[in-house]
User: What shape does this take?
Amino acid sequence: MRIVPNLRSSVVEEMPPGQLLLFTSQIGDSDAALLEGNPSVRPFTWGTLLRALRDPDLELVEVAEPLWLAEWVRAVRYVVLLKLLRPTLPRRRPVAVATYAIENLDVGVRLSLRALDSRPLLSALVRRLVTAAVGMSLRLLDVVVFGTSGACENYRRAFDRPMRHTRWAVLPPRLDACTVCGPVGTAPRDRTVLFLGAPSERKGFDVLLSAWQTARGADRGWRLVVADPDGDGAPDLPPGVSVRTGPSRRTIHELLRTGAVVAMPSVRLRRWREQIGLPLVEGLAHGCRVVTTTETGLADDLRDHPLVTLTTPGDAHSLAEGLRHVMTTEPSGPLTAPAEGYTKRDVVRWWLTAGAIRG
Assistant: This one.
């Protein structure tokens, strides 16, 4: 069973067989077509949780990661309930409590309270108390998988001692062929750069527009297509840039199959940093070249990837150079990612194995 704070279409598409997915909220990119007639995906209720916990075949409960503080407070209640019920539930094996951690923003910043920004001494004290409380609550977890080496180092810097009591591993996502579309084809790609997601400051959209003009993308015969799930209104756009509002997952997959490049120029804000970046993962899974920044938690894992160009965050000239590179050169390797990394099924398998050892 998996309890997620935000329901994303990609999460539904990658569900391992036999998994129950409970979501506590729903965000714009969750395609209703994926949910229709799918009894394994349900809104969270306490009744649904209790029925799932009584299932004698239940082996694993995945909850939100501890640095997502609001969701972690809720998750602690679910875990405490499970541990209280454990002695009363006959099972073939214990139920392991797991999390998949990808938070890349420094723990001290992530756990600071915005309301105390104007009171630095009190803010520092509260941050220390919250950090200590989160560290103690980590012991509720049986197994932890870090999706990036950046996330692992982030947790280890702040929670080294509590993590010694939990089995953990770094299992970066597998970046091979999309499970929906299948192997990458050899057909010529459209001269298209894709930007997937809301055109926001943290995703570097303003930087991308500036870099697009500097790189003279339209003059080179390229298009920049923005797939905006919300469609709250596009700003004034330069030549060669268009917006697809509220595209379905089918449309997203089609754009990725036919487009040549995915741009994900994320920048760091005070209280936000890119964790992995779904556009990056999906772009590589469809054989696209990816121009991104070093803000993703996968930056260290992708430095030598033949389809990835890393640029300086927030630097329009660096991003323009990256765009020029992919628009004027051929890939240095095949349009298929190396068969490295781990699928969600691999992660679940590790959780179950490590959880059984811990139990």
Q: What stands out?
A: Residues 120-137 form the longest helix (18 residues). The CA atoms of residues 12 and 34 lie 7 Å apart.
